[in-house]
Amino acid sequence: MEFKVTKNANILTLTLIVLGLLFTGIGIATSMGDHNLNTRIAGNLLIDSFFFFGIGLGALFFLALQYATETGWYASVKRVIEAVSGFLPVGIILMAVTLLIITLQDGAHLYIWMDDEVVKNDEILQGKSTYLNKGFFWIRTVVYLSVYYIYYRGFRKRSLLEDTVGGTDIHFTNYKKAAVFLVFFAVFSSMQSWDWIMSVDAHWFSTLFGWYVFAGMWCTTMITLVTLTLYLKKNGYLPNVNESHIHDLGKWTFATSFLWSYLWFSQFMLIWYANIPEETTYHLTRIKDFRFLYFGMFLVNFAFPMVLLMSRDAKRHAGILTFVGAIVLVGHWVDVYVMIMAGSMGEHARIGFLEIGLLLAVLGLFLKTILKNLTKAPLSVVNHPFLDESIHHDI
Amino acid sequence: MHKEAAIREPLILGHKTYTDITADVCKPIEDKAPKMWYVLFSIALIIGLYGVGCIAYLIGTGIGVWGLNKTIGWAWDITNFVWWVGIGHAGTLISAVLLLFRQKWRMAINRSAEAMTIFAVFMAGIFPMIHMGRIWLAYWVVPIPNQFGSLWVNFNSPLLWDVFAISTYLSVSVVFWYIGLIPDFATLRDRVKRPIPKKMYSILSFGWSGRAKNWNRFEMVSLILAGLATPLVFSVHSIVSFDFATSVIPGWHTTIFPPYFVAGAVFSGFAMVQTLMLVMRKAMRLEAYIHTRHVEYMNIVIMVTGSIVGTAYITELFISWYSGVEYEAYAFINRFSGPYWWAYWSMMTCNVISPQLMWIRPLRRSLLFTFIISIVVNIGMWFERYVIIVSSIHRDYLPSSWSMHYPSHIDLGVYVGTIGLFFVFFLLFARFFPVLPIAELKTILKSSGESYKNAPDTHGHDGHADDNHNTNNH
A132, A343, B67, B372 - which has most CB atoms within 10 Å? Predict the structure, then answer.
């Protein structure tokens, strides 16, 4: 069945974008003259670009994971995963533009290592300058983004081709390509977190940071996937998707929330316990200026899925899944917000028109893009070697 | 009704029936043990007893007989401890995590992997106990009131968390393993003729009758235990890593340790499973159940976890430079170019480079190659712990107390002895216990058995109610 974007959905996404831009405008207008307005705008661009780019990238990773592990059950929701990963080209542009804006302002006090004046008086940053400098930063960024794009395009092309030609050749190509993609992803997902996010706290370091950011990204992706699947199902699409598929997506949401919480705790506890000043500074800033948001988001992102999604029935219940998903999605946005704002704006950070506005605008764009992607290909794949397994999926 | 795609390789080869499965698994137990078994058992026992002797000497004399000194307070003992705990990770991962992921191939290996886990955790437990020196005070690690002569334990110490984590893990693993064994013990009870074994298996099978109610409860308990065991797979080695990472020692204190230790544990655990399975399938003629495809799957797990470990090594190395902390940087420079460079590069070669060879399909499907790599990986993972522990502390903040660790023959004897004891346990297991889960294997026979899979009429019968509904689907 072909998917059609409903009128209401179009109105909703458009309203989000218009309202978001309006709010952003009001936010900027009312803060005119603040000396840190530039940093605030740049920071918000980075937060929202990265958050939604991460969901697109997470979907591409999840798709590759299904290929590489020769998973069967997902075949019925494959087009949903592809539609979300289809945000990646837009996400890549958002990231590139954001990073360009930041670079042109010599870091906009977000990446202080881009500012020669700062580096001149900072021995630690001088020590890092062979890695943290504009040129190498951009080489890395371009490499990550182009590799993601190339693999995205290849997976999409072969997926559509499989519908028409069939056979198992495409399956085995995907299997191999996905394995190679996962290798790139394993390295790049860590490095991009260091480059784009950890370097906001330019003096600070944590070996776990990349995996932590990745876990958050994966969790938000799973929430997006399960919510979108439920939406489509509710509107009468995806006839092959039954409760078991929803259950599996719910389990992934549950598991990735746990993974994220585990990594948050590992990073926090080890730094707290060892109490080394170079490291504790990270948490101290967050506890001082963001106490409510920092611990609040951990509590929400950990406790909500754990308590509410523990039971089998809850993971099959559209209402509970959507409710928990919506709250945890906000929780993970706050996580990205705190990661970036605590290191740049510090005590001057606040959530106002600008923050909400830009979030809504990019959210609108995100939803619009993935809904449009859904119309571009049939919602059910044919000729997938595991389709039969997926149709008969029963757990 | 479950479907299995035609392109998936069958998991049970040949024309096996339900009866064949029972007969194939029970035969080695019912037959007389082959000569080879006695030979191996004697060798393992002698080595094990030598280890016990070394431990007795150690306890009688004091831990000064090890190569430890004031700077290097932890060396082989804790290396061996972490090595064994790591190996003990595969069993529960296979039985719990792979159960949740509905990986049917795990059924060929889960029973022996769980047994291996339990024996490995036994071996691991020996080391912290004998490291205490006064082993008769080992009960002091338990929080009991001071009236018993002990001191109240320090709940802030990760070493105490370790006591809880490992004992919980051991208990859950044993229960999980044993519950799975019950129906198979009942099968043996019903088959054996001689009175003493019959009595034994009868006691062990807890009066299992095979009624629907029994199976219902069996399934419920398995699922609950899988749910309990999955977080344990993560917690145990995370907490072992806290032993190091909560300190302020460069090279020990780093935030990536918990997930990286877990990946390393699974890596070494699977390597040990490979070593054991490749010998066992041959010796016990189980080639139809544990075949190339299973070996390939395990090799892929080894490759993936090996790559995760490799990524973590390189992340640590990079961040030690990036941090700008000179002590941190020195710890790593000393690791790869200091007096223990050979240990570091052995670790890198065995753990990072060798699993990458598994990208080549003919190699990961070669049983001989797999066997060699599985041993290489186990050596590499031993070196990893040695590198982390010894190379980080042998040159501490005070250069005047820098030192080297030279293992004594008692170090060596205890370590080799635990390997001997481990094999004593494992050989006894292989002799008297059903090494494959008979009941579970039967559930996948009709969906994944070669003769059923390739039969022409297995497709297109949506409605018919045959019993290939597999139970591995929670």
Answer: A343
For B447-472, what is each residue's pLDDT tens digit?
Answer: 888 888 777 554 444 434 444 444 44
A176: contact with B, CB 8 A cutoff: no
Least Cα separation, residue B324 to chain A (angstroms): 6
Give B326's contacts (C-beta < 8 A, 6+ positions apart): none
Among B2, B100, B259, beta carbon nearest to A394: B2
Q: What is the pLDDT of residue B101?
A: 87
SS (H, E, C) B373-394: HHHHHHHHHHHHHHHHHHHHHC
Q: What is the pLDDT of residue A49?
A: 96
Burial string for B210-230 (b: 16+ CB within 10 Å, else e) reads: eeeebeeebeeebeebbeebb
Q: Is the pLDDT of residue B247 over 60?
A: yes
CA–CA separation, B80 and B76 (whole Å): 6
Query: Is any Cβ of chain A less than 8 angstroms from the Cβ of B103?
Result: no
Q: Count CB neighbours of A248 within 10 A.
A: 20
Mean pLDDT of B9-22: 88
SS3 track for chain A: CCCCCCHHHHHHHHHHHHHHHHHHHHHHHHCCCCCCHHHHHHHHHHHHHHHHHHHHHHHHHHHHHHHHCCCCHHHHHHHHHHHHHCCHHHHHHHHHHHHHHHHHCCCCCCCHHHCHHHHHCCHHHHHHCCCCCHHHHHHHHHHHHHHHHHHHHHHHHHHHHHHHHCCCHHHHHHHHHHHHHHHHHHHHHHHHHHHHHHHHCCCCCCCCHHHHHHHHHHHHHHHHHHHHHHHHHHCCCCCCCCHHHHHHHHHHHHHHHHHHHHHHHHHHHHHHHHCCHHHHHHHHHHHHHHHHHHHHHHHHHHHHHHHHCCCCCHHHCHHHHHHHHHHHHHHHHHHHHHHHHHHHCHHHCCCCHHHHHHHHHHHHHHHHHHHHHHHCCCCCCCCCCCHHHHHCCCC
| DSSP bridge pairs for B449 | B12
Chain B contact for A149, CB < 8 A? no
> Contact A206/B314 with Cβ under 8 angstroms?
no
Element holding B330 (H helix, E strand) = helix B326-337
Residue B256 has its nearest CB partner, among A207, A391, A394, at A207
* Amino acid identity at A221: T
Q: What's the complex ipTM?
A: 0.92
| Chain B contact set for A262 (CB, 8 A) | 234, 238, 258-259
Q: What pTM did the predictor assign?
A: 0.94
Determine the Cα–Cα distance for residues A18 and B295; give it in Å rounded to an integer.
Answer: 57
- Find out whether B433 and B25 touch, Cβ atoms under 8 Å: no
- The residue of chain A with its CA nearest to that of B235 is A262
pLDDT tens by residue, B296-309: 999 999 999 999 99
User: Across all residues in chain A, what is the average pLDDT?
Assistant: 94
Q: Does A131 touch chain B (CB under 8 A)?
A: yes
